Amino acid sequence: MVDSSDRERLDSSNGCGRSARNELHELLEADELRDAALLVLANKQDLPNAMREQELSDRLGLDTLQNRQWFVQPASVRAGEGLFEGLDWLAHALGA
Question: So where are the chain's domains?
Answer without folding.
Answer: 2-93
